[in-house]
Amino acid sequence: ATLVIKKVYNASQERVFRVWANPEEVATWYGPEGMKNTVHEMDVREGGSYRDAMKAPDGAEHIVRGTFRTVNPPHKLTMTWQWEGMPDETLVTVDIKDIGGKTEMTMTHSGFADVAAKENHDKGWSSSFNKLESLLR
Predict the structure, then answer these.
(1) Which of 24, 48, 74, 119 could form a disulfide with 14 if both were Cys (CB 3.0 to 4.6 A apart)?
(2) Which helix (H) or strand (E) holds 20?
(3) What single-letter DSSP state applies at residue 28?
(4) Cβ atoms 36, 43 nearer than 8 A
(5) Model-level pTM greater than 0.85?
C-alpha cells in the first residue's frame, strides 16, 4: 500500500527542503502532535543514515531509522524508513516543487504491508505536517 500526501506551503523551495534536511528543524516538527522528537543521527547525503526517537506523552519511545537514497536539494529527498525492532522497511520520497513563490511538497510513503499500516502512518504524517505548517508560516 502507498500513501501520498500533497501540501502547499507559503515558503521557498529551499526552505521546505531545509526543514527535511536540517536536524534542528526536523526535531521541531517530526512526529505526531504531542510527541517530542530527538534526532540522534542525521547524515544527509546519499548513503548517509538517520535515527530519530519520537517520545509519546506516556513515555513510550518510537524509534525510526533509515538511509538516504536520493539527496537532490532543493527538489527531492528519498529515504528508507524502518521502525527499530520491526522487519518491514518502507520508502519515503519527498518531491519539492516551486509553484510561483509557494512550494508544493508531495510526500509518498510506499511499501506498506497492508492498508492498516498505511492508515496509521497517514495519521502520523498528517499530524506532523500540521506542526510543519505552523513552522513555515
Answers:
(1) 74
(2) helix 13-21
(3) H
(4) no
(5) yes
